[in-house]
Amino acid sequence: MFTILHLAIIAPFLAAVLVPLLYKFIPRIHTGWFVLIVPIILFSYFLSYLPEVSGTGSVMKTFEWIPSLGINYIAYVDGLGLLFALLITGIGALVVLYSIYYLDKHKEQLNNFYTYLLLFMGAMLGLTLSDNLIVLYTFWEITSISSFLLISYWYTKEKSRYGALKSLLITVMGGFALLVGFVLIASVTGTYSIRGILEASDQLADSPLFLPAMLLILLGAFTKSAQFPFHIWLPDAMEAPTPVSAYLHSATMVKAGIYLVARMTPLFAVSAYWFWLVTGFGLLTLIWGSLSAIRQTDLKGILAYSTVSQLGMILSMLGAGAAALHYDSIDNNAYTIAVAAAIFHLINHATYKGSLFMMVGIIDHETGTRDIRRLGGLMTLMPISFTIAVIGGFSMAGLPPFNGFLSKEMFFMSMVEITHFPQYSVDSIGILLPIVAWTASIFTFVYCMMLVFRTFTGKLQKEKLPTKPHEAPFGMLLSPLILVALVVFIGFFPNTLVPTIIEPAMASIMPELAQTGSFGVDIYFWHGFSLELFMTIGVVLLGTAIFLALQKWNKMHVIFPENRLFNQAYNRSLEGLDRSSHALMSWHMTGLVRDYFIYIFSFTVVLLLFSLFGTGAFTIDVENMVPVSPYEAILSLVLVGSSLILMFTRSRLKAVISLGALGYTVALFFVLFRAPDLALTQLTIETVSVTLFLLCFYHFPQIFDALKETKFHAVNFVISATVGLTVTLIGLSASGTRLFPAISDYFLENSYKEAGGNNVVNVILVDFRGFDTLLEILVLAIASLGVYSLIKLRLAGGENK
Amino acid sequence: MKYNDIILQTVTKFISFLIFLFAVYIFFNGHQEPGGGFIGGLMTSAVLVLLLLAFDMETVRRALPIDYKLMTAIGLVFAVGTGVGSFFFSVPFLSQTFGYFHFPVLGELELTTTLAFDLGVYLVVIGTAMTIIQTIGEDK
């Protein structure tokens, strides 16, 4: 049954259709106001699912889309899906509100912007609320495509196009890997349903395809979530308008990879590879991203690398959480804290990073630059933006009393806890995990301070700013203010989220554990003088020292040289691909029709001869053949004669005439064999095509010049002789073999009964095989448009010269 | 140089109508006797080609100001439309039917849905042939 839930998922797509109309016909009102309605309604709708999904509950609605093929549209809402649905619609609503003030309704192409944005929103909802892997994959790719369109929104800028292409190539490459991974999983478990696959997880664990499928899916997730070394696309994606960066490239789309890892955790967590790959790459990305962020001078660049780094952090927690699935019950299972921390940080990251992106957008909008070397001293001019930056930045740095502090503590706790895990040699080298996490957090602290203090304190350099700075309008400040209010609220009352969102989401990631009892997550500020607290104090002290030193001591480049290695690898491989495919194409695509004929004919001949003799189909049976009548003999001679003339004549007119003779002779054959329809068609076709030839005369080169250069080509001769031979042999074999009764009897019998026509040929054409005819005329139409555009385009090009 | 095409032009003026009528006849009669949309369309294009040969492109264009690309498109709409029409009667795509009707002057006649489909074929064939010929002919 088609339910409201199904409608809710496709609602953004339906709304996307209306956007261009609204933009065109109601230009006085900013299109964003209409668009804003969609995420607000959807957000409140998904909120109503909270009670149903709490605990281990889930809602599943099936709409039989193509029942004859077993293709169903299954919407599935559980804790994890609902968390993402709320993020997508909630942040979506705030971003749309913000964009209304960010994008000018007179200067910008709002119809494009909002259509792409709604396209993305729908795809993201479909991705997270689907039970079918293929549906998930399809929506996955739609998010990549809408991201591409949004990054290249200001498509006149060279850098936008570069960034858009880069993100598309990298994420779609990962998407293909994902598809292959899904197909591998389905080939083992025999189903594409996620629910079904999770039930058959034992079957998959024993399969040799387990590891390849896991690696491919991780590749997909890592490219999407900008994990090292695929993180290179995210900084370039910052060319997109700031609302897009806040929405796609920090709050939602890049978290699709995290969603996938979380979804697949019950399936793969039994593997040591999964544990080490997810945790290892997560931590590597965390430290790489935070070190790169310090080097940035562009505010959005800092935020981009910080997003990369924070995504790595969430992934590493999910990886460490996989350890929890090695135990049968929740009691004494300390590793579940890592999963809780991952989900909690996912929410926190969306709130503070969203507000920071919007704050940076405001700075960019009101001062005209995002370069921290030119900014400074804005505190008194833009006090509200400063407040937003302080709350968002301090939360990201992990300072109390904000939500970032809580999840950072939980992160430390889970990294310390994991060193006690007795398997996978964690007890020997596992000590590295908390050390890396702690080091990365110091640098996280440093870039957060840069973000806040380099922008708002220090000396105001008015002469370096393109416009006179002033505070943004209230509408623009509203969205980030709501987000920082959430930052503070979650900081003080984190436990409101626990039973409603965090525990249901944990239940989706650890379904078997959830059956054994409640996770008992309790988040609070004061843990006593624990190791985590000292780690945080260390982060603050060392971080402050580095930040203060960094101002004068700009030698980070020496310690950590600007590493363009991966970007260069990307650019080089792109160039290489371009060059090699061009070389390959120009090697065989010569532009000469005779070369193409050689390819086509040799391939056809090889294929046909192979199957003719390879399957033993070759027979010559003369029994059923009628004797050749004198008429037929004469006509055959005419055929042979005219084709010989056609080949050896040096006059073009003679060639056309002999070609016409050839065609008319074939028409006579049809008459002899009593096929008036074919004869008529053949005659008219010959007439029309001779005229076409006459028209083309004008364009042909002089035939004599061409002939003088032509030598005898043995290869061509062999190919053409073989083609003739093959066709003859197949013709003989076909008439000598009768495996089935001819279908013509059926047509003769039923043509009048079923279709009311006496002319069997016509009935076949328009009724029995009407689909063929439909596609044939489609091909005709395309061919005519092809000729038209080829000739007209060439004319236009000629005039330009 | 001026060609003296007076015989061809005079003959064409009469004969083109006859061929065209024959083409239309063949088109309508296609379901029972040799003919149909494809042959009818080709024959109609042959008439147009004859006109092009006897007169010049400009004259024919003035006399018959038809956009053949549009004609192709309309033909496709007819052909696809008969296919889609099946959906309204809950039968598979491109299902065809027929029936016998009584007309005031013509008497009882068979009408088929395939005629609409065939009309599509007819228009596409003319449209395609004439688009190609006109485009190449104009390209000087």
TrEMBL record, chain A:
GO terms for cellular component: plasma membrane. The chain crosses the membrane at residues 6-26, 33-51, 71-101, 113-129, 135-156, 168-189, 209-232, 244-261, 273-291, 303-325, 337-363, 375-397, 431-453, 474-493, 523-550, 596-618, 630-648, 655-673, 679-700, 712-732, 773-791. Residues 716-792 form the MrpA C-terminal/MbhE domain. GO terms for molecular function: antiporter activity. It holds the Pfam family Proton_antipo_M. Its main location: membrane. InterPro entries: CPA3_Na-H_Antiporter_A, MrpA/MnhA1/PhaAB, MrpA_C/MbhD, MrpA_C/MbhE, ND/Mrp_TM, Proton_antipo_N. It comes from the Bacteria. This is Multisubunit sodium/proton antiporter, MrpA subunit. It comes from Marinococcus luteus. The lineage of its organism: Bacteria, Bacillati, Bacillota, Bacilli, Bacillales.
Automatic annotation (TrEMBL), chain B:
It is a multi-pass membrane protein. Pfam families: MnhB (PF04039). Keywords: Cell membrane, Membrane, Transmembrane, Transmembrane helix. The keyword Metal-binding does not apply. This is Multisubunit sodium/proton antiporter, MrpB subunit. Residues 7-131 form the Na+/H+ antiporter MnhB subunit-related protein domain. The keyword ATP-binding does not apply.
